[in-house]
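Hi there, hope your week has been kind to you so far. No rush at all, and the record is pasted right below.
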Amino acid sequence: MLNQNPKIQPPYGSISRLRYVLELFSTHNFPQITPTMLRDRGFSGSDAFQTIAALKFLNIIDSEGNKTENVTKLQLKGEERTQAILEIVKNAYQKLFNTVAEPYKLNKDDLYNDFISVYELSGRLAATAVPNFLWLCKE
C-alpha cells in the first residue's frame, strides 16, 4: 500500500529515534504504537510525535497507530530485510522516485531542492528530511 495521505510529511525528526523504533519492530510484537508508549520509552513529546508521523509516512503504522503488514517485513533478516526496506522506502517516497529515478544519488543540495518542490516542505524541514531519507536508503 502506498502512502496515500499527502498531508503526512516525510520523516524529518531524529534519525536515532527512528532507528530505535525500527529496531524495536524487528524484535518486539507491538499491536499499536502511540506517543504515550514512545514517551514511556524515553522519547520527548516532540520526538514521539515526529516518530509516529514518520512511521505513518512509511506505512509501518496506520492512522490509528496499528501496525501494518510492513512491520512483518522489518522482522526479516539479511538480504530479505534489505529488499523489504527498499520496497517500503520506494513506496513511501513514490512522489520523489517518480520525479527522480535515483534520488539517493543526487548531491545534497539537489535532493534538498527536490524535497522542497515535491513535498512542499519548508527549508528547515527539508534540511532534516534529507538526512532521514538518505539514512533509510542506506538501510
Notes: The radius of gyration is 14 Å. The helical segments are 15-27, 35-40, 45-57, 70-74, 78-92, 94-99, 108-119, 123-138. The chain has eight helices and no strands.
